[in-house]
């Protein structure tokens, strides 16, 4: 799996675990895993109504809003967290009881999940404009282009690649320096996944 393109148009759509909506599964490991036994999972979903998140015991989650006005997360301890498009990323445990309230209309989100003790991850937002170097030390690297224009990236040992608007790529064992380039200001989500 040196390079997997993540495209919402060709990925598998499936119901949420709690049945409250639909998610698009962009990538999962193992490839034949289900929602109860995956090691890691990358997905995107449209959230059209307020409601509770599905429970994923033993899973660490990162969630970002890609499009729409955003939503407010109500945590089990009473804490409220605002998630806006192209802004902060929520990090929480999958077993935590969380509900979401939309701030306007429907939103689209990006969801990265890893099984605690098997994989770990971090998801960050990079505001890309011009050329920028990204140093990668992770086994798996997720790049998600949230901008309306394509951007370019160059692998440590390869030629220049194009990452289309509103799509992603999952890179395996591409440690080193990647060069990213965009003509316009581009929000780029960068996820690093490591074993253990």
N-to-C CA distance:
19 Å
Look up the CATH topology of the largest domain.
Jelly Rolls
User: Helix coverage percent of residues?
Assistant: under 10%
CATH C-level label of the largest domain: Mainly Beta
Task: Summarize the helix and strand pattern as letters.
Answer: EEEEEEEEEEEEEEEEE
InterPro entries: RmlC-like_jellyroll (IPR014710), RmlC_Cupin_sf (IPR011051), Uncharacterised_HutD/Ves (IPR010282)
Protein name: HutD family protein
Pfam families: HutD
Q: Can you summarize this structure?
A:
By secondary structure, the protein is mainly beta. 0% of the residues lie in helices and 60% in strands.
What does this structure look like?
This is HutD family protein. The protein is mostly beta strands and 196 residues long. The chain has no helices and 17 strands. The chain has strands at residues 3-6, 12-15, 22-29, 40-47, 51-52, 59-67, 71-74, 80-83, 90-93, 99-102, 107-115, 119-136, 140-145, 151-154, 160-163, 167-172, 176-195. Strands 1, 12, 13, 14, 15, 16 and 17 form a 7-stranded antiparallel sheet that branches. A hairpin with a 6-residue loop joins strand 2 (12-15) and strand 3 (22-29). The relative contact order is 0.21.
Structure characteristics:
196 residues, mainly beta, Jelly Rolls, 2 domains, seven-stranded antiparallel sheet, six-stranded antiparallel sheet, 0% helix, 60% strand
């Amino acid at each position: 799996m040196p390079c997997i393109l993540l495209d919402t148009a060709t990925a598998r759509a499936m119901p949420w675990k709690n049945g409250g909506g639909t998610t698009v599964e962009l990538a999962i490991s193992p490839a034949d895993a289900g929602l109860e036994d995956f090691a890691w999972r990358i997905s995107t979903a449209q959230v059209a109504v307020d409601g509770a998140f599905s429970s994923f015991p033993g899973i660490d989650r990162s969630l970002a809003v890609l499009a729409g006005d955003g939503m407010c997360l109500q945590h089990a301890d009473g804490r409220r967290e605002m998630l806006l498009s192209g802004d902060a990323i929520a990090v929480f445990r999958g077993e935590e009881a969380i509900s979401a309230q939309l701030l306007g209309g429907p939103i689209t989100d990006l969801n990265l999940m890893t099984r605690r003790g098997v994989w770990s991850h971090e998801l960050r937002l990079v505001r890309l404009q011009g050329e920028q170097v990204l140093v990668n030390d992770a086994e798996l690297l997720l790049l998600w282009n949230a901008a309306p224009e394509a951007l370019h990236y160059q692998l440590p040992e390869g030629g220049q690649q194009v990452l289309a608007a509103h799509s992603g790529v999952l890179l395996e064992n591409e440690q080193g320096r990647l060069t990213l380039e965009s003509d316009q200001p581009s929000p780029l989500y960068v996820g690093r996944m490591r074993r253990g």
